[in-house]
Backbone:
């Protein structure tokens, strides 16, 4: 039986038509299978664009996640095999999460920090799992980007000589790249297959979150090509003591407003921590929305998680940070950045209160006093 709170919640949502009723169901909007013809044509043009060029750059978004890393790695592999062209993979921020660091080390993915990159030296600039002007890349907004492969909603204005393949109806950017490789019948080594498999696995939470039929097909095919020993090492990477302190801070600070849980880590040593804690806390019974915050390197990092796709996390977070920073995302996962942010806790706390107010308003909820997650009586 549905708890009364959930029914009330659904009813409130149905009033908020804009959010509750997406214009189209993306799953029905497009074919259910891979689109190898499209993949062949567009990737052929990308290959031609880099052929014979001196230097090619592939930019992943800042603090790259497995999907961005695998997509960049796969694109560089495609260029190497089909055009004999080497490419440099770069990103800003850090690979923070231990799983992701283990992935980079064990699979030998060479990622150059953006501050070591001189844009002028590159004839072709590609961007994966991200788009210019969305705030999650240190690549300057005015920098020309020639090739974009992404699965986030389109926000970039496509210029004449740009090659853009944005597929909103793919759960992982790595799946699009898998199609390119498949369409060209490119041999996939174990390292690359393992990277792409882990990307789809973590991005879709093992085909449980925002997955589409092509992701499932890629996941199944890549599994048999992957090294399961390395997959285990990645998924069970050892974590430092500080990781548990962050866990503790997330739990201690977590407060619940209706079915919205908000936590604030204050200072974090890497931004991925915020997203990881947000995923973790979404498991709380009766919670459908999680907003996490943390400050890293003078930047406030936000992470929004929803337990259903129809609410459009990307749209919600953009409204919530409007005028304060930049944000974007998919249906159930989204992130944002506010720069510059001081390390002062009082200022961070004030920002938290502002964001809570805005989030509750956007979700059409009454303002209420938050209930601590770890309050004394935990029986309900
Ligand atoms: Mn992605």
Residues:
């Amino acid at each position: 039986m549905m708890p009364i709170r959930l029914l009330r919640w659904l009813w409130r949502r149905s009033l908020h038509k804009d959010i509750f009723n997406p214009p189209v169901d993306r799953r029905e909007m497009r074919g259910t299978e891979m689109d190898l013809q499209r993949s062949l044509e567009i990737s052929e043009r990308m290959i031609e664009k880099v052929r014979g060029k001196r230097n090619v750059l592939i930019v992943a978004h800042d603090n790259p996640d497995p999907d961005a890393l695998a997509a960049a790695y796969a694109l560089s592999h495609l260029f190497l095999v089909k055009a004999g062209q080497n490419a440099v993979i770069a990103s800003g921020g850090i690979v923070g999460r231990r799983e992701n660091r283990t992935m980079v080390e064990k699979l030998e993915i060479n990622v150059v920090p953006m501050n070591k990159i001189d844009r002028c030296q590159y004839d072709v600039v590609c961007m994966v799992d991200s788009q210019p002007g969305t705030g999650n890349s240190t690549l300057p907004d005015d920098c020309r980007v020639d090739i974009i492969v992404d699965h986030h909603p389109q926000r970039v204005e496509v210029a004449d000589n740009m090659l853009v393949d944005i597929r909103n109806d793919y759960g992982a950017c790595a799946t699009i790249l898998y199609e390119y490789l498949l369409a060209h019948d490119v041999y996939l080594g174990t390292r690359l297959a393992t990277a792409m498999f882990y990307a789809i696995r973590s991005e879709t939470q093992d085909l449980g979150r925002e997955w589409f039929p092509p992701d499932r097909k890629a996941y199944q095919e890549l599994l048999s090509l992957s090294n399961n020993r390395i997959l285990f090492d990645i998924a069970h990477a050892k974590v430092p003591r500080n990781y548990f302190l962050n866990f503790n801070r997330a739990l201690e600070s977590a407060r619940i407003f209706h079915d919205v849980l908000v936590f604030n880590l204050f200072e974090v040593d890497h931004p991925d921590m915020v997203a990881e804690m947000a995923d973790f806390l979404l498991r709380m019974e009766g919670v459908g929305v999680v907003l996490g915050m943390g400050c890293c390197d003078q930047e406030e990092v936000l992470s929004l998680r929803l337990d259903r796709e129809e609410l459009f996390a990307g749209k919600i977070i953009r409204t919530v940070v409007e005028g304060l920073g930049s944000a974007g995302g998919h249906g159930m996962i989204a992130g944002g950045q506010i720069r510059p942010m001081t390390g002062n806790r009082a200022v961070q706390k004030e920002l938290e209160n502002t964001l809570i107010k805005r989030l509750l308003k956007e979700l059409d909820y009454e303002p209420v006093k938050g209930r601590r997650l770890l309050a004394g009586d935990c029986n309900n």
Remarks:
- Residues 255 and 372 are 4 Å apart (CA to CA).
- The longest strand covers residues 260-267.
